[in-house]
Specification:
The protein has one domain. It contains nine helices and no strands.
């Protein structure tokens, strides 16, 4: 009985593997060297959020198990943000306030990314990414990253759920 109490559910293991994939992909040097993403904390947050949004969007169409994996992925991401704040030396009293702000930013980004991704709106996505990742209002600056994100969305849609949760196949990062 105690074994079942402490056993990790398959959805949690899948979500942990997906988060590891997100972390590895978002840290890919090509984002910074080829696509010009600033190597700054805020821009890294945006890349992580974009990749988490892409995966959660893909999992939403997979019924209750997909929704649970997506929710667990989201929870793991929020927990990783909390851990990062603590590693940066943010005091315990400030973590809650900063986490609330990060949570609001996270929901805001996901809300901005989801509709333009769903509509395959490259121009709209480029503008949102230019604003959030680069801090400018020039869609041209975000165009290559928008193409990457739309390629990633299409590629994830072609993958079976078992392949996706085993290890997503992200597209090549090109200018």
């Amino acid at each position: 009985m105690l074994n079942s109490l402490f056993r990790t559910r398959p959805e949690k293991r899948m979500a942990e593997a997906l988060y590891a994939s997100v972390a590895a992909q978002a840290r890919a040097p090509a984002f910074y060297t080829q696509l010009g993403v600033p190597d700054q904390i805020d821009a890294r947050f945006e890349l992580y959020t974009l990749h988490v949004t892409l995966l959660i969007g893909r999992l939403q169409g997979e019924g209750p198990q997909g929704a649970e994996i997506g929710q667990r992925l989201f929870d793991i991401y929020v927990s990783a943000l909390d851990d990062s704040l603590r590693e940066l030396g943010v005091g315990d009293l400030s973590v809650a306030k900063k986490m609330r702000k990060l949570g609001e930013a996270l929901y805001g980004r996901m809300s901005a990314y989801e509709p333009v991704l769903a509509e395959d709106d490259e121009a709209g996505l480029a503008l949102v990414l230019a604003r959030n990742v680069h801090g400018v209002e020039d869609a041209g600056v975000g165009r290559a990253l928008a193409r990457y994100a739309l390629d990633a969305r299409a590629g994830l849609a072609r993958q079976s759920v078992s392949d996706l949760t085993g290890r997503p196949d992200w597209p090549e990062i090109m200018t």
